[in-house]
Amino acid sequence: MNISYNWLKKYLDFSLTPDELAAALTSIGLETGSVEEVESIRGGLRGIVIGKVLTCVEHPNSDHLHITTVDLGDGAETQIVCGAPNVAAGQTVVVATVGTTLYDGDKEFAIKKSKIRGVESFGMICAEDEIGVGSSHDGIIVITDDVKPGTPAAEYYGLSSDWLLEVDLTPNRIDAASHYGVARDLSAWMAAHTQASELRRPAVDAFELDNAEGGVSVNVEDTQACPRYTGVTVRGVTVKESPKWLKDALSTIGLRPINNIVDITNYLLHGIGQPLHCFDVAKIAGGEIVVKNAREGEKFVTLDGVEHTLDSRDLMICNSEVPMCIAGVFGGLDSGVTEATTDVFLESAYFNPTSVRKTARRHGLNTDSSFRFERGVDPNNTLYVLRLAALMVKELAGGEICGPLTDVYPSVIEPSRVDLRFDYLNSLVGKEIPAETVVSILKSLEMNLLEVTDKEVKMEVPTYRVDVTRPCDVVEDVLRIYGYNNVEISDSVRSALSSQTFEDRDNALRNLISEQLCAEGFNEILNNSLTAESYYNELPGYPADHCVKLLNPLSNDLSVMRQTLLFGGLESLSHNINRKMADLRMFEFGNVYFFNPAAESTADRVLAPYSESSRLALWMTGALRPGNWARKEEEATVYDLKAVVANIFARLGINPAEIRLSAGTSGLYAAGLDIATRSGKVLGTLGILSKKIAASMDIKQQVVYCELDWHALVNLSIRKKVSYSPLARTMPVKRDLALLLDKSVSMEQVEATVRESERRLLKDVSLFDVYEGKNLPEGKKSYAIAITLQDDEKTLQDKQIEAVMNKVITNLTKKLGAELR
């Protein structure tokens, strides 16, 4: 959940910095994962100041340029060449000084000292679109206000940054799924840390009906699935673009502004935590809202244009003829607000969490509204938020509020009662917390204290705290505000630890390889085993019908178990690349899952069609090494990844002579290899990822990928003790061979042939050049290899060397058809 720092301050005054705020929220159970500055104008107008044009003359070498001198408030006159037709002496203008960076979409350019037609220029006098304060490029900005030269442009325009805090909510804390909810918790924390500040709730005292008639009537047929339904009509509205403050608030938390009416509902959803829906009154046939269950098999098209087949258990918001909205989940395509809308009906309701959850799962939908409804919003907050929404609509879109103000609430949901004994709390916490401290914290958490004695406190829990029903729940609330760090570990704590040990070889090898990969610059990631079935469409190596499907998925994006680790890693790559971190090396250990349609389940083998395997995956993309003045940037290649894999095999003690590489068949790669043993046991795949697959994740740069069967590697790994031997006193001898070979011959075959020719003296065979092209016969290629020979006991004689090389050449000729060049 995204929280705006500035938006939070609308409900609570505090002096915490964004980082201090993140730490405070984390300490009270609202774990904050990241804090990111959000600039209303990219670059924050840094380096841009207000200037006064002192002189302006025509450029001697141009018919449209002017030479100006500008006072920038530094006591000097700065010469700037300007091409704007409206520049003149005496103007107050906006100037980008030397060193300033300006932005144009994704592009950026720096203002430098330059010569324009032979005249030096030390800055740029700016137009609106050049600094992001408008769209005009007809001429430079001319400021009519009396502004002192040197004033920062950010100060003149009242520019301020916001900060985006990413808060990870636990499932039980739906009360904090809004800015007001977070502010409420923060207020309690501040009170406990002697920084008390009053929580501000937007007032609705100004709400009144402008017209007692003219509204839409409401009929709730299923009060079990919809315990409370409130609504009101606003007529004569103008649907238009939202004001800047509202658009900025939504944009900061990642929402796209649509129009003033829809933006108000989104603003209150994320501001107060109550989902709202808005209907075009002209599309409410019969002038009546009917809340009822759908007809079995009925078709309904949601706002995203997708057609759904309804279930008789789905609760729908209908007019007198057809459904208009899946209650609490998603609106319909034909009932929403458009620019032509003049009258709107605002809905604020409380839907049964179980009903919403089951409907959302049946249709594979997950929206901001369903997320809140299925966890339980405050049933006693609906009318307040409805009034607040109506006031905002009237303020931003005009119109008049028409009655009746409908509130269907047949069975009032009362607050739950909890009695908490202080000795129980102290026993559970492990520390004696003063009773007055406990009472103070409970008050700050808006608990309604009915009775307080020296032994216990009796309270009513607000209906927005659906997770607090027992004394232990209250203890948890008190403790998170009091501070876990304030509970010391008692000296009387004792623990019995078993001295029995056992060997977990799989885990030991994982740790070994993880440490090696981290040393090579890789970062370990962990992704969800659930993924989207759509990833496997048209993927030959991993057919969609081999996916293990979930019967009741959370969403379409989490509907199957993964067959490969690839897509989770690509999501991680895309996430980082979109945040300007494009040079990445990642690895993951994880399980993959398969369904075999050909296998049949039996009474004693129910899971026969299903299988599970452990994998190690590696991703590399972007620069392998950053460039500098001495060398160019090097892009990560498939050969770099192949070397990493070779190091893994070496670390596990797997003999490289046992490994065979062949052309890939998985369909994942633009160019790939299958990795197997000599006996044919498949170990994995490696290659350059298909551009189509990368593009599907919005990745435009090359990605190299490898996936290995971890269990197979563990079974192949050899236990061996490290042994040491003295360095040879003799000198090694190197000989180079240039071989003309058929293109079908691999280096692996060449190396194997050389090693078979001489086992005792041969130390190394390496490839140092490959050539294909002009001056070679068709179908041929040239390999240049280096052969290293050494006798550990004595210096090699020329005759010995010649004999070995002759044998090598003979075998290469006979077995591979090689010719010396």
Q: Domains counted in the coordinates: how many?
A: 6
CATH topology of the largest domain: BirA Bifunctional Protein, domain 2
Number of helices: 20
Main pleated-sheet profile: 7 strands, mixed
For the CA atoms, what is the radius of gyration? 36 Å
State the oligomer: single chain
**Helix proportion:** 10-25%
User: Strands of the biggest beta sheet: in what spatial order?
Assistant: 28-32-33-39-38-37-36
Number of strands: 43
Which whole number gives the mean pLDDT?
92
In CATH, what is the class of the largest domain? Alpha Beta
Which regions have little confidence, pLDDT < 50, spanning 5+ residues?
Answer: none
Strand content: 25-35%
**Shape, per Cα inertia axes:** globular
Helix-and-strand structural type: alpha+beta
Distance from N terminus to C terminus (CA atoms, Å) equals 66 Å
CATH architect. name of the largest domain: 2-Layer Sandwich
Corresponding CATH superfamily of the largest domain: Bira Bifunctional Protein, Domain 2
